DNA sequence: GATTCTATTGAAATATTATTCCTTTAATTG
DNA sequence: CAATTAAAGGAATAATATTTCAATAGAATC
């Protein structure tokens, strides 16, 4: 990891607010504009910053329901896994997708308007591929959601 | 929802790439710079755009392991819920936190370096508050992760 | 149906911020 | 200690965001 303390500080600032100006970043981290800007460029180039995005208010856009879907399968070959990945990537409702250790094989987070929209999704999903066991868990409330990764922050 | 088609297009662009210039956005959606800029301002002001952030590469930063933690409790009063929220909000490792319907009461996604880092977190957590039942599910691989909400996209 | 009023648009002007260029400083090695 | 290299900072330039204002379109009233 070829990052020094200043780089980490820059990353911490940017993952909190990507619209901050180079000048302000430079003041926070204690180097002048040009070297600060070069560091920011480098962090993007090396892929530490993957992208800059706007986070939308899902509730306001009537997408208030997260459903966690646990999936079991009896197909454990690579080609099936690839097929499933392709299927899932075609669903914009699926915002997270993990291969799990333990009890079940995959976990999805599906973001929908309401229960009936989830049912629509569910029917599309089981039509798209063959799954052994699908369990749906509904979230009533999103209490915390952050895209900030926990950088080893020496909070004094 | 006081948004027209153009607003939705703007939101779709920004949640994909927040560093796009106003000029490019205006060309995509077919209005000129100034009204496009005013729409963007309005979307922030009304809270449709909550914030703009940089998404970091968690793997490169050695934070490759997501753990989903299911929590059950026998305390179902409001004050305990509030206490739990406060406790959780103090853990930067917890990147998502939901109150669930059904089997278990809460679900966390915890982002850590490795299993031993998770164990550290786990010990801190159970020391911080009293929980009836805690089940940890490890993700082996993050196959999909997006912050983009599924805007009713008529993908033709 | 003409006319006024209002709200929205877009082109141009201005201000801010990003980016480049070049000199200076600091650090490292022979 | 001089020579070389790498990184830093200041000043100039380019790009972009923001404001201003004149022009247009739409709605409402007479």
UniProtKB/TrEMBL annotation, chains A, B:
It comes from the Bacteria. SMART domains: HTH_ASNC. Keywords: DNA-binding, Transcription, Transcription regulation. Pfam families: AsnC_trans_reg, HTH_24. GO terms for biological process: regulation of DNA-templated transcription; response to amino acid. GO terms for molecular function: sequence-specific DNA binding. One of its GO terms (cellular component) is cytosol. CDD domains: HTH_ARSR. This is AsnC family transcriptional regulator. It comes from Marinomonas balearica. Residues 3-66 form the HTH asnC-type domain.
């Amino acid at each position: 990891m070829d990052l020094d303390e200043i780089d980490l500080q820059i990353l911490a600032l940017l993952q909190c607010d990507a619209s901050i100006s180079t000048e302000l970043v430079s003041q926070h981290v204690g180097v002048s504009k040009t070297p600060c800007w070069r560091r920011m460029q480098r962090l993007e180039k090396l892929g530490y910053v993957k992208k800059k995005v706007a986070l939308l208010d899902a509730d306001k856009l009537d997408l208030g329901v997260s459903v966690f879907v646990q999936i079991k399968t009896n197909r454990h070959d690579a080609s099936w896994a690839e097929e499933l990945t392709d299927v899932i990537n075609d669903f914009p409702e699926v915002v997270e997708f993990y291969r799990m250790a333990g009890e079940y094989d995959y976990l999805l987070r599906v973001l929908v308007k309401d229960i009936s929209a989830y049912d629509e999704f569910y029917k599309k999903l089981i039509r798209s591929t063959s799954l052994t066991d699908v369990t749906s868990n509904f979230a009533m409330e999103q209490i915390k959601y952050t895209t900030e990764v926990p950088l080893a922050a020496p909070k004094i």
